[in-house]
Every structure is written in C-alpha cells, then in structure tokens.
Amino acid sequence: MIKGSRKLPTHHITIRVPWHDNKWKGVVCKNPDKNISCQVLSNIDSKKNEAEELKIINQSFENLSKDQLPPCAKERGAFMAPFAMTHEESHPYVQSQQQLYSHFEPTPFTTPSYSAACVPFNWMFNDNQQLINKYKLNYNSEREPQLGFRTNWIQERENQLVMLDTFFGALEPDQSLCFFYAKDTPLSSSSNRVIIGVGKVTQVSDSVEYKYSKLNQDDLRSVLWER
C-alpha cells in the first residue's frame, strides 16, 4: 500500500470477457465467422479478421505467432487458458505527446494460467475526490502532468498506485469473489450483463511499471493499470 492510503473493506470484482464458443481455454473459436457476440467489444470489432481466423480454427494461442492471434487474446478471451500468455502494452499517448511520453517503451504484461487481467476503471478517473476523501487517500493532483489537453485519467505513477493499491488491497485471497461477465451472448437477447463464471480470487499480482528508454529525475513515470 502507498503510505497514507487506507484499506477498503473486503470486496469482490467483476471482469468483462468476450463471448467465446469453446470455453475460453486459449484456443481460436470453432466457428469464428458465426461468433458475432464478441464483436460488441470495439477492440475486437475493429480488428477481427474472420478469413484469417477460419484458417486456424480451434488452434491454441500458445502455438500461434503474435500476428496470428485473434483480437480477443488481449481482451481476456482466454482467461481459462492452462498456460501463461504475454503481450506488450504501449502507452496510448506515446505518439501524440512526445514531449512527456517519448521515453515510454512497449512493456510486456503476463497473465499466468487460469487468470485474467482486471482494470478498475472507475478508480482511475482524475476527479475521484469523493473516493479520495472517503478513504483518506494520499492522492496529490499537483503530481499530475500538464498535458495541454483534457484527460479523464490519472497519469502519474504515485497517484496511480494510491488508487490501484487501495482497490486491489481490498481483495482477500480465497475470500473475495471474481464474477466474469459478457456484454453479449447468443443465449440471451437481453442487453444486461450475463454472468458466465464465478471464482475465488487466489492471488493478485504486483504492479507493473512501464519500461523506459531513459529515465531522468523529473521524467514522468506510470504503471500499467492491469493486475
């Protein structure tokens, strides 16, 4: 925990996953051309290539190259995979904000077998004064960089860790529950979230800081939000 933050009561978490037709076990769908439910997620819809996926149906992600992986691989489409998976994360502002982010490098993030990455988006807004006051968090808005444009998201490493460590610090191994849900499934016409699995949280990984090409004393630092 970051000094000055207060631990929340034990809580549970929800993780969104895309619909899969073969048990989220780390393989390409059996019928990728018929799985339209996964495309409700924009990161899948914009990158899905059914023609290429049809060439590798039911093949394990473990045996595919980075270029062959379907877009669901980065969207928790394999949270029940019996093997670890590693992908690279690039900061979204590297290209548009060169002055502040040019030293940020693509950073590997690994999800172990039978695990899923969780991101507490509601905790990463930079106007979370209600949460900050309620839990007496050591968040300091003066640490945030001046970007020259409006952003809703916390950018600075210490502020990020205050929020992330507080949120994840409330998870109790073998006590807290994790609910996996899909936004769309072929089994229901409802627009509500559909629970597809529930499990106990056994472990939460440590934070992962971005890699840098160089790092001077006053350079901005950030961490990945996923754990």
What is the compact description of this entry?
By secondary structure, the chain is α+β, with helices and mostly antiparallel strands.
Detailed description of the structure:
By secondary structure, the chain is α+β, with helices and mostly antiparallel strands. It contains five helices and seven strands, in the order βααβαββααβββ. The strands form three sheets. It has a three-stranded mixed sheet with strand order 1-5-6, with no helix packed on it. Strands 2-4 form a two-stranded antiparallel ribbon. The radius of gyration is 19 Å and the shape is globular. It starts with 12 loop residues before the first strand and ends in a 15-residue tail after the last strand.
Q: Please bin the fraction of helical residues.
A: 10-25%
The average pLDDT value, as a whole number, equals 93
What proportion strand? Answer: 5-15%
Q: Report the C-alpha radius of gyration, rounded.
A: 19 Å
Summarize the main sheet.
Answer: 3 strands, mixed
Order of helices and strands: EHHEHEEHHEEE
Name the overall outline. globular
